[in-house]
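Record format v2
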Amino acid sequence: MRRVYMDANATTPLLPEVMEAMRPYWMEHFGNASSIHQQGQRARTAVDQARESLAEFFGCHAAEVVFTSGGTEGDNTALFGLLHPGDHMITTSIEHSAVLQAADRLGRDGITATRVDPLPNGLIDPMDILRAIRPETRLISVMLANNETGVVQPVEEIGRIAAQTGVFFHIDAVQGAGKVPIDVKKIGCHILAISGHKMYAPKGVGAMFVRKGTPVDPLLVGGSHERRRRAGTENVPAIVALGKAAEIAMHGLESGAMHRVAALRDRLEQGILSQIPGTGVNGAGAPRAANTSNIWFDQVESEALVIALDLKGLAVSGGSACHSGATEPSHVLLAMGLDKKRARASLRFSLLKTATEDDIDYALDVVVTAVGRLRELAPAVEPALAETLAETLI
Amino acid sequence: MATASTITAPENTAEPGGTIAVAMSGGVDSSTVAAMLRDQGLKNGVAVIGLTLQLWDQNRLAGKPGVPEAPKAGRCCSLDDVYDARRVAETLDIPYYVVNQQERFEQDVVRPFVNDYLNGRTPIPCSLCNNHLKFDQLLLTARQIGAERIATGHYARNEYDPARGRWILKRPADRAKDQTWFLFGLTQQQLAHTLFPLGHLTKPEVREKARESHLPLADKPDSQEICFIPGGDYKQFIANYLEEQGQPMPDSSGELVTTAGRPLGAHEGVHNFTIGQRKGLKLTSPNPLYVLQIDRDSRKVTVGPESELNTAVLNVHRLNWISIPGLNEPMRVQVKIRHVHEPSPALIEPAGEDRVRITFDEPQRAITPGHSAVFYDGDEVVGGGWIL
């Protein structure tokens, strides 16, 4: 059966060039980048070259690039590394759990957090950030692009607020990287985290921009790697791959690859909205990452729709998977003001940059059929068991 | 007369192609069903997919009194069971999905369970789960994702009888594992879309098949407890659940009395008792005393000697009929009133709207409101209802 993958915001495959770039560093150039000998120097050179690529990608100095194990580590490092008991931080209710749960953990240590809600279109209002600032506020943490809706946040305006108020600014750019140009100077952030596997590099590697002089304590200690900002032997092949992926992403952004993806995304979106009644776009009207479309379907449980589509060869996602693999309604959509029912009826399509016109046709075909079937079988009214139970105490 | 179930055409016959969804709990029985159907499917072209219902978060009440910080392993709905089910699906190379039904389970099973105890009844959550989750929601989800039928690891048989135009639920080959008592609420529509592939097998045969299929859990022990109460302490569960919901425990404390109404002592709430209970009465008496009756309104718990536990006549309501469309006149059947009870001869007769009176030939011990009474005609399940 044909399989079409429209879950790029979950993860992406490696590009062939990325695979090729990392290939020699598994067996041939296997050295430890900290070693003095030739093998070590070879590895060091590769890591340094990747660092230069990432510096260009971020718009920063190579010395401001720190390699990590991925987006979660970068986000965790920003919060755990910058905040101390008594501090206050501002974040948003639509962040990834790598930020939200780190903030929860810090709450135990006497670090308070304000979670700003988005507007109904998914955008954070910078004025809401400004209003939340207190004398003890030390950090603002806002994502670049939302993983569920693709909505791109006004980070430059928030950066100006951070600068004016003397507050550190962290950006979770995991979903923005490769889809939206990044310039850390323009944004005015102090830390920015990205993840390899969302941008056609492997899982288990990521990078941070850490502005020179930012007093961030390392999360991992045990060596002088990464200028003492992140201990642990460098994952050389994966770092090489991330460097290559960053180069390709920059080139793609310059040559308009995202415009092509946006056109495909728009065609998919328009096709669904015009062919299926009772549908709408979450985050409509806000600037969005070119590859992402989050659509609600009345009278449909997205959990069943995701499975039905998977069995027809289309991989998409609905809500976020909880520990068992079951689906929970998206906290992002709930924060945007959707009721539980509509949040549960929403599906995320996130296109790979290699998506084709054929993929869109196939997706439209199976989505229209599957939604029709689900609606046909949907129970007209929720059976009210409560009525058949006698006394009700609770 | 009692209400009839809708009659449907026999859709449950073997058809070429198609898809069956197996309800996988992570236990031996449902895993073996998946293996059997997968093997058959390789021959007859029927596709098999695995579904697990995520019903209860075992971490929810963790750390409350009597509940460990980290939940015990190997219980229904636990991550370990989902892991086991997933491993089986991987071994069999079938698609596998976990479906979140936690809200529905809480609404249709957990809350009624708590309510029943607080009202002096003794509930059977497994029957509620079968009626409202496994054969209702799961079947709906299965059909929505393109599977015409579901299969479960229940020990029961389900056959279409063209003469009567009805789906007939029958006791399984392995009488010791008979689960038809939990399945009496299935409608004709549900039976028409359900397969019980273990109905003709004994448990040892099922374990043997599991071993032949190289399933990693062929020797996993059977689960016995109520799946959302791993420790088995339902009183503690009710207290913890009410606390989590921010609701006070309703005061149903009162008196323990004799059948003559003589007070013997005090009790702390009707939910602490079940009919036939002997332990935990905190009474001193020359002869053992048993709970005979629980009255929520007067909060009186009547106790007495074992001989008075036996009753011949009872009423049931919220009926479901399987082998017959409804009951119009008295009928001789065998009636089963608890999981370990052997069906006993009785007469059932209509007793008003959605109500049946049962008269046992011999009085039966500890008839328990909140439980179900299921009517059998030999191997066939005639129907059943909930004891008033």
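Chain B has a mean pLDDT of 89.
The longest helix of chain B spans residues 125-144.
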